[in-house]
From TrEMBL:
The active site is at residue 110. This is Alpha-aminoacylpeptide hydrolase. It is a peripheral membrane protein. GO terms for cellular component: cytoplasm; extracellular space; membrane. The record marks 194 as: Transition state stabilizer.
Length: 675
């Protein structure tokens, strides 16, 4: 990638010497101090990777540079890694905890590329995942070591969830995808290459064991240093070092798209298992996998590990479950979500797991896996929204950020679909979802507390944003109150960086064409600040207004010099549910200009996905298809097909929800429960 020229000077931080290697961060003048955190993470990551790969960083220097105009998040140029400012700079006073975490992950990811990508380079684009999947996986390894209090491996399930959701589309693609033309390359820089790639690596490491896997990986790096490698080369080294059938196992995961759902059913003393390819449209594809299965019963001390090699298998549980009975009986498959698959339990097993969640018997990773699987199965109409709401209710006393980040994501998705599926009931569902999150939100409150953890700081932001989006009046009013104090004193402790997004969203809830004060004030702050992270917070808020005309104004802002082209996706990602029709009309009116201004296929894909995917009817899918019939290009064709598929999946889910006879009764029962 060519590095463009920018007409300003950079100033270097004080450099650190790492075993004879100069490590430096370059920033704009005046932002030197904001590069120190990344510098520290970079030095520690190099040290960790040297030991893990048993190969030192080979160059005499490593420079990292923060660039205001940079479309990619970062680029791993050998010895000179380029970043967006928001991906490299961190300011204790101006940046949020989530910004800090993202900087650490991004730096570790790019420095991992110095081994996976630069020292050993993929043979062809088909093997892109050898670069991106491994860099993603090993970045969590590094950050977990540097910041163990962040519980980073549990947060890795965010990546797995992203991969699972994309790979459940018929319009997904295999990890190893044939690339025959340059125009096809950008399209595979997606959650399959990154997130699914990283997740199947984690699955393989779990199957082989961490120590054996590390030693074999180090052998691979040494063997292919300063040369090219393909996926089969990695499997060959791993097989040679471990004696395990790695190629046969992993080929089923990298050469075919998708993944299985494992149906688990109790039959007397047996647990019957059956796999089928999971698709969000409710169908089953032809895929078949060798699945590394793990299971525990009533305790993590009682566990089993085996390979599911065919369509069906039976696990005998008589001795396995002998000590468990009644509400203490539960079986959890896919321990700690190490496997890249979903599980559909029969009613008895599902009830046992719900009790285990309430009794806090499960690991954080398994709590996440259960709610994510249940949500995905509901979307695919393989279980009811009614049962999903009952399951969500089991998390009502949860206080851990890593779990609640997934619970809130599901709650917000349920709120959106219920608005279209059942308008008469949607208000009650919204109140139920607010009630589920309110207990944890009241515990963390708005104000930082002495000695609170990094994850509690992130939890506060997460819950406040969710409650604003769900329309919780008290949270919205408090956000607006603190915002007005912030306008008088930008350093007020009443609105630290972590809470600003919630306050900005609250302000935009009250903006209308006749009262646009909040929009104008936020836009003024945006223009005044030079901090990339603050700019992104504001851009993601401006388009969240329920007023359609204001949404259009926010979109029009992208067409001006006020917004860098690279930052358009912040505006697109904030579009309110009420503004989706206006956003779609805007895209049609401005399509020719958009294509000309944002020629990158990844950015065009953002426009398509953000404006099309929120719709939920077959009629709208047909309208979108008609518009793009003469406009689609190979560079964003896959993104368009995936977006249309999501629309049709939502339409099918809505039809299913409308036919649920006990949904209203269940919602009322849950609303009446004492928390």
């Amino acid at each position: 990638m060519l590095l463009p020229f920018f007409p300003f000077f950079y100033i270097s931080l004080d450099l650190l010497i790492y075993i004879g290697t100069k490590v430096r961060v370059y920033t704009q003048v005046g932002k030197t101090s904001q590069g120190k955190f990344a510098l520290d993470v970079g030095v520690k990551s190099l040290d960790l990777f040297k030991d893990y790969f048993a190969t030192p960083y080979p160059l005499p220097k490593l420079d990292m540079i923060a660039i205001p105009d940079f479309a990619a998040g970062a680029m791993e140029n050998y010895g000179l890694v380029t970043y967006r400012e928001s991906a490299l700079l961190y300011d204790e006073q101006l940046s949020s905890a989530s910004n800090k975490q993202q900087v650490a992950i991004t730096v570790a990811h790019e420095l991992a590329h110095q081994w996976f990508g630069n020292l050993v380079t993929m043979e062809w684009w088909t093997h892109l995942w050898l670069n991106e999947g491994f860099a993603s996986w090993v970045s969590y390894l590094a950050v977990e070591s540097i910041f163990p209090e962040w519980n980073n491996w549990t947060q890795f399930l965010d990546e797995t969830t992203s991969g699972l959701r994309l790979d459940a589309l018929a319009e997904s693609h295999p990890i190893e995808v044939d690339v025959n033309h340059a125009s096809e390359i950008d399209a595979i820089f997606d959650s399959i290459s990154y997130d699914k790639g990283a997740s199947v690596i984690r699955m393989l490491q779990s199957y082989l064991g961490a120590e054996r896997f590390q030693k074999a990986l180090a052998s691979y790096i040494k063997k292919y240093a300063y040369s090219n490698a393909k996926t089969e080369d990695l499997w060959a080294v791993l097989e040679e070092e471990t004696g395990e059938p790695v190629k046969d196992l992993m080929t089923t995961w990298t050469k075919q798209q998708g993944y299985p759902v494992i149906y688990a059913k109790l039959n007397g003393q047996d647990l019957e298992l059956e796999q089928a390819q999971f698709l969000s449209d409710g169908s089953s594809g032809p895929g078949m996998w060798i699945v590394p299965m793990t299971a525990c019963c009533g305790s993590y001390d009682l566990n089993k590990k085996f390979l599911l090699k065919g369509k069906t298998d039976t696990m005998h549980i008589k001795d396995f479950a002998a000590s468990q009975s009644g509400q203490n009986f539960w079986i959890k498959l896919n321990i700690d979500q190490n496997g890249f698959y979903r599980v559909k339990y029969d009613d008895e097993l599902a009830a046992g797991l719900e009790n285990a969640i309430k009794a806090k018997k499960l690991s954080l990773m398994d709590m996440i896996g259960i709610v994510e699987d249940s949500y995905a199965l509901s979307v695919a109409c393989k279980q009811t929204l009614t049962s999903l709401l009952r399951l969500l209710n089991a998390y009502r006393h949860e206080s851990d950020y890593t779990v609640l980040s997934h619970v809130t994501s599901v709650c917000l998705s349920v709120n959106k679909i219920s608005t279209d599926a059942n308008p008469d009931l949607s208000s009650d569902i919204k109140q139920l979802l607010i009630k589920l999150l309110l207990l944890a939100a009241k515990r963390v409150g708005w104000d930082p507390k002495d000695g609170e953890s990094h994850l509690d700081v992130m939890l506060r932001s997460l819950l406040l944003i969710a409650l604003v989006k769900l329309g919780h009046d008290e949270t919205i009013k408090e956000g607006i109150r603190r915002f007005h104090i912030f306008l008088e004193d930008r350093k007020t402790p009443l609105l630290p960086p972590d809470n600003r997004k919630a306050a900005y969203l609250a302000v935009m809830r009250t903006v209308s064409t006749s009262n646009r004060t909040g929009y104008d004030v936020l836009l003024k702050i945006y223009k005044e600040t030079s901090e990339a992270q603050e700019k992104s917070r504001i851009l993601g808020s401006l388009s969240s207004c329920p007023d359609k005309d204001i949404v259009v104004q926010a979109l029009n802002l992208m067409l001006t010099d006020e917004v860098r082209n690279q930052d358009a996706f912040y505006v697109l990602g904030g579009i309110s549910l009420e503004g989706r029709e206006a956003a779609w009309a805007w895209l049609k009116d401005n399509w020719d200009h958009v294509v000309k201004t944002w020629p990158s296929s990844s950015l065009i894909s953002d426009f398509v996905n953000s404006t099309v995917s929120p719709f939920t009817s077959e009629e709208k899918a047909a309208e979108v298809s008609e518009f793009f019939a003469t406009r689609v290009k190979p560079s964003f064709e896959r993104a368009l097909k995936q977006s249309l598929e999501r629309v049709r999946i939502s339409a099918r889910w809505i039809d299913s929800i409308k036919s649920e006879p006990s949904l209203a009764q269940t919602v009322q029962q849950l609303l009446l429960q004492e928390f």
